[in-house]
Amino acid sequence: MSAPGIIVAGLRKRFGTTLALDGMSFAVHPGLVTGFVGPNGAGKSTTMRVVLGLDAVDEGTALIDGRPYRRLRRPLTHVGSLLDAAALHPGRSARNHLLWLAHSQGLPGRRADQVIEEVGLSSAARRKAGGYSLGMRQRLGIAAALLGDPPIIMLDEPFNGMDPEGIVWMRGFLRSLAAQGRAVLVSSHLMSELQDTADQLVAVGRGKVIADTSVTGLIEAASRNRVAVRTTVPA
Ligand code: ADP
Ligand code: MG
């Protein structure tokens, strides 16, 4: 089995009197969609922020391909993330936003047009982003996350604001990201959005994992893709 793309081990974090993370631990593997599901306030967004080095922890470790985020060589092209619907300059087009981001990351401008196509925004890419629906903003945020062709992708509540057609598209899109060999971590407060899409589900509540189907999920994914998985724990 390939090494995990993301490892979260024993994260604990307090905000004042709130224990936001209480021993959060799980792993995210390349080639699989890992669904991160739990009610609002369970600690999903905080966990993702910790993985990205945006929040400090009181205890525990978060590693990306074996390193803390701050020690990745090219973090922005290593980890693509959607934390909130994109912050937009309302007067600029989606394409302008992406061209600017590509430029600021040292990427060629054609990447902007490629990711616009990938997320299905081609027909709207030259319109002012101020008129975008929340679902379109989510697509733009995902396009931005994909600019650097990252092997690791974290999407926080990408189904928010999506209409039924967008949800169907998002499910297939997440599958295609994993089929390209990427490690995909996607959060939702609704099990229904993830259960048919994710290869493994990490269910959380009150800052910790309450159920993790990674073993059965891995076996199923492996049999679908005809790859061998070692299921015994090495001595
Ligand atoms: P989820 O994404 O699963 O809805 P969060 O990670 O956003 O959960 O929040 C976990 C807990 O931490 C909640 O109780 C939330 O109110 C609290 N929390 C998150 N961020 C902050 C913050 N910046 N300041 C204070 N409390 C926070
Ligand atoms: Mg959240």
CATH topology of the largest domain: Rossmann fold
**Which CATH-level-2 architecture of the largest domain?**
3-Layer(aba) Sandwich
Based on DSSP secondary structure assignment, what is the total number of beta strands?
9
Q: Could you give the order of the helices and strands?
A: EEEHEHEHHHEHEHEEH
Helix content: 25-40%
What does this structure look like?
With 235 residues, the chain is an alpha/beta fold. Helices cover 33% and strands 24% of the residues. The strands form two sheets. The protein has a six-stranded mixed β-sheet with strand order 5-6-7-3-8-9, sandwiched between helices. A three-stranded antiparallel β-sheet has the order 2-1-4. It is globular, with a radius of gyration of 18 Å. Bound molecules: adenosine-5'-diphosphate (ADP) and magnesium ion. The site of magnesium ion has 4 residues, from helix 1.
Summarize the structure.
With 235 residues, the protein is α/β, with parallel strands linked by helices. It is 33% helix and 24% strand.
Question: Which descriptors would you attach to this protein?
Answer:
3-stranded antiparallel beta sheet, ATP binding, 235 residues, 2 domains, 6-stranded mixed beta sheet, transport, disordered C terminus, Rossmann fold, nucleotide-binding, ATP-binding, ATP hydrolysis activity, 8 helices, binds magnesium ion
